[in-house]
Amino acid sequence: MSTILLVEDDATLAETLRYNFEREGYAVVHAGDGVTALDRARRDRPDLVVLDVMLPRLDGFSLCRILRQEGDTPILMLTARRDEIDRIAGLELGADDYVAKPFSLGELLARVRAILRRTDRQTAINREVLDAGDVRIDTGSRRVWCDGREISLSQKEFDLLTCLVRHRGMALSRDVLLERVWGYDFLGDSRTVDVHIRWLREKVETEPSRPVYIQTVRGIGYRFEVPTAR
Q: Which of 2, 163, 207, 228 could make an SS bond with 47 (beta carbons 3.0 to 4.6 A apart)?
């Protein structure tokens, strides 16, 4: 089941869209303002964001820009403004499609189905399995196995491990890891990386105090190594 994040401050329209999306078989998460929407997008990782332009707290164009900087979740923008320049602005910011209000509900649902079909096909193409010693990562299903057993990781733990494994053998600074995993506009500091590394070691390493996979590179950051023997 695909999940849609519906970002719309008009309560009546939001309820109408929610009802029709759910009738089509989608799960729906609603946010009535841009700041709440950003939090829910990061937390729930929806398959599609249906995004109104005119929003309180953080407008749709700004939210679209942030979401596109942080990932490739498809975005369908809604607006009551018909100016071509607004449509162009939304598309240049990374929106996948753009519908002007008032719109036909049938057309909107057709566009949603089309975007999700394209996404499903692209996901199948891009699905990747990373093998690094006894660690296996399935990026499509976001599942991880270590020594043949599946381990449960949070979203950021998964992204951090995947980043390290993709660059195995390379020393990655804390700043690089912050940018690639949390995004360049993240307001935290490098201690965030250290905390998540500690949590990862507790799940991946046989002896977390003597790590063999996730190694510390003094004065720089961390490196993922595949040991010749454990």
A: 2
